[in-house]
Write a structure and sequence with these properties.
mainly alpha; 82% helix; 111 residues
Length: 111
């Protein structure tokens, strides 16, 4: 789980750094920090959602195989999919907030 959170954090941070100039321009044109945070979360959430969907598909296949061999599978209160989703969102919040606090002038000068 820690490796997944670290990897997600690194990927989202890199993507946010690459869009530094674009975000600076958006802030200069009047975008609110919450808009920038939302944009980074959506952009980072797409690959996370795809990965979770793939994991869910594999878990479903394993559950179906298990259910054919024995009694029906019970749903556990400590569902790892929920923890993985929460960890992914937590990993994306840091880069999203950092991007929202960027100074537009610094972003434009960096290029």
């Amino acid at each position: 789980m820690a490796l997944a959170v670290t990897g997600t954090y690194g990927a989202v941070r890199f993507a946010a750094e690459q869009g530094n100039q674009e975000m600076g321009i958006r802030v200069a044109l009047g975008a609110q920090p919450r808009d920038i945070v939302r944009e980074v979360l959506v952009a980072g959430g797409r690959p996370v959602a795809a990965g979770m969907l793939a994991g869910l598909w594999l878990a479903l296949a394993a559950a179906l195989r298990q259910s054919l061999a024995s009694a029906p599978v019970r749903v556990d209160a400590s569902d790892p999919l929920v923890y993985a989703g929460a960890a992914a969102v937590a990993a994306m919040l840091g880069p999203a907030r950092r991007s929202a606090r960027r100074d537009p002038l610094e972003a434009l000068r960096a290029e």
